[in-house]
Amino acid sequence: MKFAFKPFALAGLVLGSTLSLLAPAVSAADLLATVKQKKEIAIGTEAQFAPFEFVKDGKIVGYSADLLDVVMAGMPGVAAKRQDVPFQAILPGLAAKKFDFIVTSVTVTKERDAKFAFTLPIAEATVALLRRTADGAFASPAQLSGKVAGSQAGSAQLKVLREYDKKLKDEGKPGLKEIKEYVSFDEAYADLAAGRLDAVAQSMSNLGPLVKSRPDTFAVVQPAIGPKTYYAWVGRKDADSAPLVKFFSDGIAKANTSGKMAELQQKWFGFTMAVPADRLPAPEM
Q1: What is the pLDDT along the chain (285 residues), one digit of tens a residue?
Q2: Most CB atoms closer than 10 Å: which of 78, 83, 265, 266?
Q3: Within the chain, what is the greatest distance between any pair of CA atoms?
Q4: Which of 274, 237, 277 is nearest to 126 (CA)?
């Protein structure tokens, strides 16, 4: 049996192969473009971190909420849907793509910087100790030996506290009696006020407004116990997310250089913090 070979079939095959070679490779999905197309962005946050983000009258408010409104003005028509989750689940949730971006106060560290894409800083995160006002004899971090201190589980502040405990022991001092971990800082503050803790390790930017609002209860132990660090927002470290991370970084930089960031800091903290406006500093932790 003979098969008739049709010339036009070969021509079609060659043409199809040629076009497939000439066609550009399909580019990776652009998360920023996807968000704009959907007109919605899923944002993860931990709304138990006043004055950065907290719930008031059923709404997430605070410094980050106001700054987010400023930045999102550059993406008109897109609604920000914020999910309030425990801090311990915030970075794993981003990695698992449960949300597109994190708008909450995440301390930039070497370990996190290796896995995630940080924006430009939004505030300083240097860690200090909070004590009870009545405990006036506790005047220096060096007096932490033999005391019970706490911080939030999974936080950079807890890491700094552990490193300071090691520093004390390396100096031949007893070090901390115990380090307690909490789901939220509010729980740690409550235990400190009740006398179940001697100190809480937290960032100075958080402690300033707290002490101002409750001076009869809390005071800050000077100086800081950790290196100068910063808070930033976070995206995934992949090609798809890069345009979205750049969008937020550009918006933060604009708010910083225009003076809007300082205005919001004054509103929520009662003071301003100088943060880099052109580049993310190398993490020291």
Answers
A1: 443 434 434 344 333 443 333 333 334 479 999 999 999 999 999 999 999 999 999 999 999 999 999 999 999 999 999 999 999 999 999 999 999 999 999 999 999 999 999 999 999 999 999 999 999 999 999 999 999 999 999 999 999 999 999 999 999 999 999 999 999 999 999 999 999 999 999 999 999 999 999 999 999 999 999 999 999 999 999 999 999 999 999 999 999 999 999 999 999 999 999 998 776 666 667
A2: 265
A3: 105
A4: 274
In the block, tokens 């808070």 appear at 231
CA Rg value for the chain? 25
**Comma-separated ranges of CATH 3.40.190.10 domains in the chain:** 31-125+229-269, 127-221
Q: At a CB cut-off of 8 Å and minimum separation 6, what does 270 contact?
A: 208, 209, 212
Q: Return all residues near 28 (Cβ < 8 A) that are at least 6 apart.
A: 239, 240
Q: Which residues contact 154 (CB under 8 A, 6 or more apart)?
A: 87, 88
Q: In this structure, which topology does domain 31-125+229-269 adopt according to CATH?
A: D-Maltodextrin-Binding Protein; domain 2 (3.40.190)
Which pTM does this prediction carry? 0.84
